[in-house]
Amino acid sequence: MMRCLRNAKDALYLYRNGYLNTLSKERFEGIVGRSFLIRLRVVLVNTLKEFKLILHNNPKLNIEGKIVCIINSNNNYEALKFLKSPEVVFLKPTVLGDKFENVITYRFKSKFFYSLIFLACLPYILLSKLNRRDLTLLHKAYGLTSLFTSLIKKQKPLQVVFTNDHTPEARSFILACKVAGVKTTYIQHGSVSKYFPPLEFDLALLESQYSKDIYTSNKKSNSIIELIGIPKLDNVICKIRDRKLINKVGLAINQNDDLRKVDKLIEALIQNDYKVILRKHPADRRNVTSLFKIQDGNKMDVYEFIHTADFLVASDSSIHVEANSLKCRSIYYQLHDNNNKYDYYSFVKNGYIEEVKNEEVLINLLKGFNYSSFNFNSSKLAHYNEALINNYYGKSSLLAQKFIYESISH
Known about the structure:
By secondary structure, the chain is an alpha/beta fold. Helices cover 38% and strands 13% of the residues.
């Protein structure tokens, strides 16, 4: 019991090291729950759902001697699909998680029995105020390390590749690989912050010097680190277009952004004769009911959204890196009031992008911006995408494959 609880707590590294303070109230409550009674109810309901899984038939799994890519979301699959080959298995080990196309879903049917132990130990677990806050997250992670360890000991993979290092599930599986003695590789798939856990992989393939600095600052790591740029962009670089006039502004928002500020910004852009294409983060379920006619950027993938826009406006999102790597300039506009979240990825601090404080300044910048004189290969932009100043721009995926297969042969 104690080992499983320690493992579950370790899996919550991100949530217990300041990250939750950067979230809006709505987003915070969406992760941990509005109240203790709601959290307890979620645990009981999920335990009941786990019971129903006992008779579930998993697909026949063959991961012995294979490279296994752990998938937690569609974004994870998009970041790793360049590795697709007969010796690679895309696997979603989960309990109640969703299925994804082209990914094998393997459900841990025995999680219910770990949940029974968890419930039996609740009086002890709830003695901690932090545990009471994180109750649903602890329950989600409880037992996952043991379950994944058992799986990969029965069929030992050649290597396990992760593109997420901070969710409770991913961290549980990373620890399991250590226990089972299976090699691990991490391929970064989005910008990282100081709240992220230390690297705990045999090989870490990072996007940039910024990422390396974040991961190594005050955090001990024995990982071999290589800077490779952004592999998932390789196939869309060919669609880059030359931009001259700015007519259509892409506006990217996420769960932390204030919709009132978003509406006000849309109004200012429309009134100044700009077309607006709005894209919400895929996890943002809120409805944006603008009074003005805007294009829905969620009806296309993120790269088509970037290619369609003439300029991008966003606050704290890694889409800035993707946009500028695809030669669509962007600007930082704080669309929330949480100063703990301000400049979360240090884009403004590091001179990667400029910041505008209000609509008037933004409109003046849009009117005066000149694409023909802007350098997308500067050292400041390369600070977030190493490939921009090396000869592997568009070849990051090949570089990633090279490092992965070399690590296997050693």
